[in-house]
Amino acid sequence: MSFDFESGVASVEWLQTCLDSVGIAAEVLGVLQSPLASHTAALSKLEIQLADAPSIDAFLKVMHPAFFQDGLNEVRFYQQAHHLDLPLPVPRYFGSTIDESRQGSALLIEALKDEYIEHDWSRREQPDLAKIGRLVRGLAKLHAATWERGDTWGRPGYSREIAEAASAAVDFPVLLDAFVLKTDGLISQRGQAALQQFVSVFVERMLNYLDTGPVMSLIHGDVHFGNVLVPVEPSSEVVFVDWANWAIDQPADDLAHAVVSQLPPHFSVLQCENLITLYL
Questions:
Q1: For residue 7, which of 178, 198, 226, 271 sits 20 to 30 Å off, Cα-Cα?
Q2: What is the DSSP letter of 146?
């Protein structure tokens, strides 16, 4: 049963096909579909009602045609995730439909049960450093496994320009431009001095790490708090979502993006050092 890209609505028949394909032997009786905000996809929360079984909470992600390649890459990630031996929780894959003629991709994944801290984008200048620390520790676990297969899986590193600039030379303007490009110019002018301080620490600490640490690892490719779920329970692991830019690539890419994308104007060198130390 194909997904109806015209309506963007998950039919009972399509949901039944998905659940059957992953071994969930229960009849789908109905579904409640609630739209959520997203600029790259039509995103919905689903409550899938089953006969003689508890309902299933899921997310349906129908990528906009302009982001079709991202949708393909994310579907591929979830299809292969159980082979990747990931050290962090990943939502269960329930099914997908790809329609190249319509440039459409529909992805159905589990909605995890934990309670998560809601990210408040208005508090950009007053970040929760403990929360950023949990994100950095999660990245360290994600990057723990090393790989030898460059670009075989996933797309080339989304932030490859950062690693290339860092590897070429300690060139402040080039590296600074790479970081600003990576964050789409979101760093305020007041934050530029702090950004330069971070770059100096990053270059000193991470170039040494790249000489001794993993050459390649699984990277997320677009790490920021919009794509990371931080559980309310402090002992629980963070959950990375939106895997459209995953790759096997330089682990420093993720760390650079994670810290820079959350960098406030008054971020200190000491705070940068502490976060990099958490990662290493």
A1: 226
A2: B
Is 8 buried (19+), middle (13-18) or exposed (0-12) by CB count in 10 A?
middle
Angle at 190 between CA 185 and CA 195, to 5 degrees: 65
Residue pair 219/247 in contact by the 8 Å Cβ criterion: yes
44 neighbors 60 (Cβ within 8 angstroms): yes
Nearest to 137 by CA among 170, 209, 88, 186: 88
Sign, Cα dihedral of 138, 69, 113, 132 = positive
Does the predicted model carry a pTM greater than 0.85? Answer: no
Residues 6+ apart with CB under 8 A from 71: 41, 61, 63, 98, 104, 105, 107, 244
**CA-based angle 92:93:94, to the nearest 5?**
115
